[in-house]
Design goal:
9-stranded antiparallel beta sheet, 9 strands, alpha+beta
């Protein structure tokens, strides 16, 4: 159950992603897995695109077809199974609470576990929130980031009038996971010069290393709390109050 004190009902999440990268050495029947998932999420699409394998020893490039299985859960929520990347990707253009993903991803992991006899492992598990704040009416920076981050952006924008994008990256190393924060002006008119100072705050919480895929739920719960704590670390208090 979500904690109301940690819920921002008017949040500015424009993209939400949970990605589970699987052990590269695992041999999986993705067609069979896709069929099983189709029983849960019937709106399925199969995309086929060219894939190139480069063999450096023989200086040869082999072309093959790569399949990608897409499940449209809602108009703005989708599940992607990528055999080439060996990844499970759950994404949405909004975020409410963990009700958005918890049961759905639980069913996905259950299918993978059943099809592998519980032996499948992940090599990376991550949760990402991309928050978007529109520019002020005059096109300048909105007053949303804390003073120190705002100062960094304003100084860079003032000194360099030919910028086409301004993104600052902070990375944090925790005991069991990492946090990568990107904030700044992405520029919706890129690669042109910045003319509208919209702001993004992109928070990616993840861990790497082989572990049972069934650990995902416990880990994502930790990452969710870490992402929220990181968000309020970068955003002004009055903005947090407004978003509640």
């Amino acid at each position: 159950m979500s904690n109301p004190k940690r819920t921002l009902t008017k949040n500015k999440v424009s993209t939400f992603i949970i990605r589970i990268d699987l052990d590269m050495s695992s041999e999986l029947d993705y067609g069979d897995i896709s069929d099983a998932l189709g029983m849960v999420f019937p709106n399925r699409q199969i995309q086929i695109s060219p894939h190139f394998n480069v063999n450096l020893d023989s200086v040869r490039i082999d072309k093959a077809e790569a399949k990608k299985f897409l499940f449209l859960i809602e108009p703005s929520v989708r599940l992607e199974i990528s055999p080439v990347d060996k990844a499970i990707i759950f994404s949405s253009n909004y975020y409410t609470t963990n009700d958005l993903y918890k049961e759905r991803l639980g069913k996905v992991v259950e299918v993978f576990s059943e099809r592998t006899g519980g032996t499948i492992k992940s090599r990376r598990i991550g949760m990402r929130f991309i928050n978007t704040f529109p520019a002020n009416k005059d096109g300048n920076l909105p007053t949303v980031l804390n003073a120190s981050e705002t100062k960094i952006l304003k100084e860079s924008l003032a000194k360099k009038n030919d910028l086409s994008r301004l993104i600052i990256v902070d990375e944090y190393l925790k005991e069991d996971y990492r946090i990568r924060v990107q904030y700044g002006v992405p520029n919706k008119f890129y690669p042109n010069k910045i003319s509208s100072q919209d702001v993004i705050l992109d928070i990616d919480v993840y861990s790497e290393g082989l572990q049972p895929i069934e650990n995902w739920c416990e880990m994502i719960s930790v990452y969710n709390h870490a992402a929220f704590d990181t968000f309020i670390r970068y955003i002004r208090g009055e903005v947090i109050d407004y978003l509640r």
